[in-house]
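Quick bug: O-methyltransferase C-terminal domain-containing protein output formatted oddly.
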Amino acid sequence: MSPMHHLSSWLQSGDTSTYETWKGISLWESLAQHSRLAFMFDETMANDSKLTSKIILDECSEVFEGLKSLVDVGGGTGTFARALSDAFPNLKCTVFDLPRVVANLQGTENLDFVGGDMFSDTIPPADAILVKVRILLKN
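Here's what came back:
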């Protein structure tokens, strides 16, 4: 059984995701409660970012030219921001993700990690904000 088996029920509910309809709690609550699940989720997102960062930097890197700063909101372990900061050494990149995600990550001269919740905390200021949507959200 997967969360997508609950799509019909989810569409009729007030839940924020099919995962919440399936499990009764949000994905974020599950990740906070289960460190192994959180690790697998973070690794999956990092692997996705490896692929997407290569494609984006190969095909449309000009989008980032001239920027002095960028915040990757929900940037996880920083895979995309690290590739971006390597490709553009004069670009100051900040990864903004949950404190549990960024707690032990090391930045570089042009890469920082800031803990916070994008739904309730202030996103650090920058020339550009990057949000990669991988999960279907419903309002």
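Actually, after a second look the formatting is fine. Strands lie at 69-73, 92-97, 111-115, 128-131. Closing.
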